[in-house]
Amino acid sequence: MGLTHEIAGAVLVGDDSRTCQLVSRALSSGLRAGQILHDGLLAGMEEVGRRFRDGVYFLPEVLVAADALKAGMAVLQPHLVAENVRPERTAVIGTVAGDLHDIGKNLVGIMLQGAGFEVIDLGVDVPAERFVEACRERSVSVVGLSALLTTTMPAMEATVRRLRAELDKPPKILVGGAPVTQEYADRIGADGYGRDAASGAELARRLCFCGTAA
């Protein structure tokens, strides 16, 4: 069993101390930082996402795995900079205006990071213009909008509308949250709907790296 496989396994069980040790050992052995990132840390988090999607893992397991991922990234980050390894895509996420719920959004951020995205989290109660501004400030591949209240779903629709109207090349727009459905996503012109955090991250990856939602 190779070191990257062991790193993935350590992330999977949420062992941050072992993750750090294995990342350091992999670096000392001569493995490139990019390989450690993709075949180790992100591969482990991707499996966490699959288990969460399938109901094998729940919120506590996801959170401890995310801590292990962060711990490993802290060790690896200087080496990634030295190798000029950067995420290929950027995702902007946030809970729409009027809504203060963030657990689902935070999970989406974790899963997107595990799928290889740089994640910019705008927080909660985010007005439509802030999403637009974030997309103007840098190249953004996907925007994830969350709403946990039926009363804030109109803000989600308004945000989609403004992103489409005010950006020359709008990013892919994904929506999710307890009251949101595929039918609603289609009606407001979103590119996709995530029924949960893992499914949303998988869809973002398909749309941005493969160009298809199928």
What this model shows, in words?
The chain is built from 9 helices and 5 strands, in the order ααααβαβαβαβαβα. The model has no long low-confidence stretch (mean pLDDT 94). α1 packs parallel to α3 (33-53). The protein has 2 domains: 3-82, Methionine synthase domain (Methyltransferase, Methionine Synthase (B12-binding Domains), Chain A, domain 1, Orthogonal Bundle); 89-210, 3-Layer(aba) Sandwich (Rossmann fold), CATH 3.40.50. The relative contact order is 0.12. It has a 5-stranded parallel sheet with strand order 2-1-3-4-5, with helices on both faces. The longest helix is centred in the N-terminal third of the chain and has 24 residues, at 59-82. It has helices at 3-12, 16-28, 33-53, 59-82, 103-114, 128-137, 153-166, 182-188, 197-210, and strands at 89-95, 117-121, 142-146, 172-176, 192-194. The protein is an alpha/beta fold and 214 residues long. Helix content is 58%, strand content 12%. α7 (153-166) links the parallel β3 and β4 (172-176).
